[in-house]
């Protein structure tokens, strides 16, 4: 009689992680990613490594922000603010990198004098970048410990179930994005600099939240990530142009003030009667050149670029309204199932 083979015993099904376990794992993963980029930038000081460090820090802070309702609030805010202050030191360098890229892409001026003036203004930004580079290298060396700061503990008391916590976070980020989008007066472009910047930041936060919780949103989550990134990138281009225009305007204003200061001093110290051979221009020589034609050349091109991106962004937000994004995404986040209207949208762009 043949020996009966034992039936394999079925393994017990793994219990789904709790919200406490999930937030600990996700925060630790973001912290490790930030630590990795900190180490990289210490030995490889390039625009790419600095960009990746900023992105890793934003992802880390976005996860902290998303989970803050479930963390010890005091320690969570302390860590988030520490990271914010650390990365704030890099804002000027990032802006200068973008300024130089945009200036290099603009069409050259036809008049040689304007062309030389634009090159002179570009060199002002290069010199600022060089000074910042040297200071920030030392800053990174002395502040590297920020990557090893402990994670905040969960808040006292019971936490909601994981899926409920995910829905809460996604709903909050979506509502903030919808509120900021509806606050933009598209017919008044001159009023949109700050609102568009705020909307860009919020779409970035929404994108990071979707990225964080993609497994809960089904196989269509990558499509939604692409939409969020497209909006974020488009608004980012507008913001970069706004920032460069503001920097040029400040530089122009500073040059005018310096010329006026020297002119006032020249008049104040003017001898009377004038000595033979007196040359007042020699005393005014240190004044910065009048670069108004160069400034106007640059600002006209930047304004034209902004208008193109602005109209595209306006059309994109109108398209999201046609998709009823406020309600349809709220339903998706609540149920974890992609609505038909978004499935059609993703299929159309596949």
Report on the structure:
This protein is mainly α and 350 residues long. It has 2 domains: 19-110 and 123-158, Four Helix Bundle (Hemerythrin (Met), subunit A) (Up-down Bundle); 160-271 and 281-350, no CATH class. Helix content is 73%, strand content 0%. The longest helix is centred in the last third of the chain and has 48 residues, at 221-268. The radius of gyration is 27 Å and the shape is elongated. The termini are far apart. The mean pLDDT is 91.
Tags for this entry?
elongated, 350 residues, 2 domains, 73% helix, mainly alpha, Four Helix Bundle (Hemerythrin (Met), subunit A), 12 helices, single chain
Concise overview:
The protein has helices spanning 19-43, 47-67, 73-88, 91-105, 112-143, 162-182, 193-212, 221-268, 280-284, 292-322, 325-335, 340-348.
Instruction: Give the distance, in angstroms, between the N- and C-terminal Cα atoms.
Output: 61 Å
Report the sheet-strand fraction: under 5%
> What is the approximate shape?
elongated
Classify the helix fraction into a percent range. Answer: over 70%
Rounded Rg: 27 Å
Strand count, sense and barrel status of the largest sheet are: none
Number of domains: 2
Parts with pLDDT < 50 across at least 5 consecutive residues: none
H/I helix tally: 12
- Beta strand count: 0
* Estimated structural class: mainly alpha
- Order of H and E elements: HHHHHHHHHHHH
Average pLDDT taken over every residue:
91
